[in-house]
Amino acid sequence: MGYAIDTAAASLVAHWITTMSLSHLARPDDDLLGGMWAVVATIFVFRETRSESLPAGLSRLADTCVCFALCLAYLLLFPFTAVGIAVLLALGTLILMAQGRHDDIVTAGITTAVVIVIAALSPRQAWEQPLLRLLDTLIGVLFRRLGSLLSRADARAVTRIVKRST
């Protein structure tokens, strides 16, 4: 039960912080997308113990940095294409294989595909998407790490704080 409450509380706080911070930086649909992305990042790194969460968080962050560096470089130079996705997936896979991080290839591939497709949906500001999704991921990973503090707090108190500030 505690694990479920911790996951929910960390995800709620990550979503709330992301949507509140993006409301000053981005369009409303990017707020919602950013909140979802932060929740996904939180869930990806949430493990039963803190000792398992730290490596998961660092791995997620490293994968994200590889993907976003590739996506940002690509989107600054080229518009969205299906061939572009294939090239980015191949490059990301090669980079992770060279680093000996074969277990991270699937997550990195999903991240790359999602970022590029999201960028295609708003082509005028496509280059912003990798940066915004990196910020969302950082918030999600951070709030999982802070989840150990939340696990000591009453989940209802966290919910009340969030409700009061919205």
Protein model, in words:
The chain is an all-alpha fold and 166 residues long. The protein has one domain. It is built from 8 helices and no strands. The two termini are 27 Å apart.
Write the layout of secondary structure elements.
Blueprint (H helix, E strand, L loop, with lengths): L1 H21 L5 H18 L4 H28 L4 H17 L6 H17 L6 H18 L1 H6 L2 H11 L1
Summarize the structure.
82% of the residues lie in helices and 0% in strands. The protein has eight helices and no strands. α1 (2-22) runs parallel beside α8 (155-165), α3 runs antiparallel to α6 (128-145) and α5 (105-121) crosses α6 (128-145).
Arithmetic mean of pLDDT: 78
Distance between the termini: 27 Å
Rg from Cα: 17 Å
Q: Structural class, judged by helices and strands?
A: mainly alpha
Can you tell me the overall shape? Answer: flat
Number of helices: 8
Biggest sheet descriptor: none
- The amount of helix comes to over 70%
**How many beta-strand runs?**
0
Count of domain modules? 1
